[in-house]
Amino acid sequence: MKLTVQGREAYAYTGGKPFDPALPTVVFIHGALNDHGVWTLLARWCAHHGHGVLAVDLPGHMRSAGPALTRVEDMADWVLALLDAAGVSSAVLVGHSMGSLIALEAAGRAPGRCRALVMVGTAYPMKVSPALLEMSQRDPLAAIDLVTQLSFSTLAAKPGYPGPGVWLRGGGRALSRLVLGHQDDAALFHTDFAACNAYAGAEEAAARVTSPATLILGSRDVMTPAKATAGLAQALKAQVHTVEAGHALMAEAPDAVLNALRSALARAVAPPTRQECPA
User: Fold this and answer.
1) Does some domain include residue 23?
2) Structural domain includes residue 67
3) Please, are residues 115 and 211 in contact by the beta-carbon 8 Å criterion?
4) How far apart, in whole angstroms, are the C-alpha atoms of residue 121 and residue 119?
5) Who contacts 182 (Cβ-Cβ below 8 Å, separation ≥6)?
6) CA 215 remoteness from chain centre
7) What SS3 state is found at 59?
8) Where are the beta strands (DSSP E) in the chain?
9) What is the 3 state secondary structure string of the chain?
10) Parallel, antiparallel, or unpaired: how do β-strands 8-13 and 91-96 relate?
11) What CATH number does the domain containing 66 carry?
12) Cβ(230)–Cβ(255) below 8 Å
């Protein structure tokens, strides 16, 4: 699905169903150097179980026109503008890694538009080591290889999904390389990492969030370790689900992540009726 957001073309995957803004909407926001494809299983489940789905490509990533935005705050504003463009008054906001910070900031900026907040593979502060920041700028392909190695805790996919013989690390690395090269922006990895590293607004955003919050964490995550979420979980009064996986937990533990998401959706605030929607 293509939309015009802040004057530029934006893309959102709708989970295999035509998007209907009258349905309760779930917005999926990907992490650094990823795209909507990391949400395929979750997006399709939601779309086929009574939800409208917008799994976005952030600006400058794959099918959404650039330039890439450099601040989490600006990306949050873009997500809220995307809701306007899609005719959606409120939504469940689901984000992974960098996307989790974007979802949090958007929920804090417009608490009445967030029915539930789901932060997957998150941490705060989301600091990136100076060495990795420098590598992402100097040699982004080497940085992709390193981050791929750190993001997966296993060498092979589970038998059930995506299927026997699938190479998780190879697929993750291939996606990052594809996103990096798609719009010929060699600095994209560094831009995303620098945005995560610089974000300092989580406490203020969390204080303004009024909807139910859920954290879905990987027990083997070394990129955003679960122990780094205690303060965030407390500030949000969040329900915490921990699954056996690394940072790429949607790929490593798809069923467990889906179950946690279903629990979060069950806690979501009911969307406003058409009469309650703002004009």
Assistant:
1) yes
2) yes
3) yes
4) 7
5) 61, 62
6) 12
7) coil
8) 2-5, 8-13, 25-29, 52-56, 91-96, 114-120, 213-218, 239-243
9) CEEEECCEEEEEECCCCCCCCCCCEEEEECCCCCCHHHHHHHHHHHHCCCCEEEEECCCCCCCCCCCCCCCHHHHHHHHHHHHHHHCCCCEEEEEECHHHHHHHHHHHHCHHHEEEEEEECCCCCCCCCHHHHHHHHHCHHHHHHHHHHHHCCCCCCECCCECCCCCHHHHHHHHHHHHHHHCCCCCHHHHHHHHHHHCCCHHHHHHHCCCCEEEEEECCCCCCCHHHHHHHHHHHCCEEEEECCCCCHHHHCHHHHHHHHHHHHHCCCCCCCCCCCCC
10) unpaired
11) 3.40.50.1820
12) no
- Mean per-residue pLDDT for 63-78? 98
Look up the domain containing 244 and give its range: 2-266
Mean pLDDT of the chain: 94
Q: Does some domain include residue 278? A: no
Residues 6 or more apart whose Cβ sits within 8 Å of residue 261 = 42, 46, 94, 118, 214, 216
Number of domains within the chain: 1
The strand pair at 213-218 and 239-243 is best described as parallel
Is the CB of residue 93 less than 8 Å from the CB of residue 76? no
Place of tokens 């906001």: 93
The answer to whether the pTM exceeds 0.85 is: yes
Closest CA to 120 of 8, 253, 5: 253
**Least confident stretch, 31-35, 109-113, 247-251, 275-279:** 275-279
Start-to-end C-alpha separation, the chain: 24
Residue 274: what pLDDT? 45
Residue 275 falls inside a structural domain? no
Burial degree of 93 (CB within 10 A; 0-12, 13-18, 19+): buried
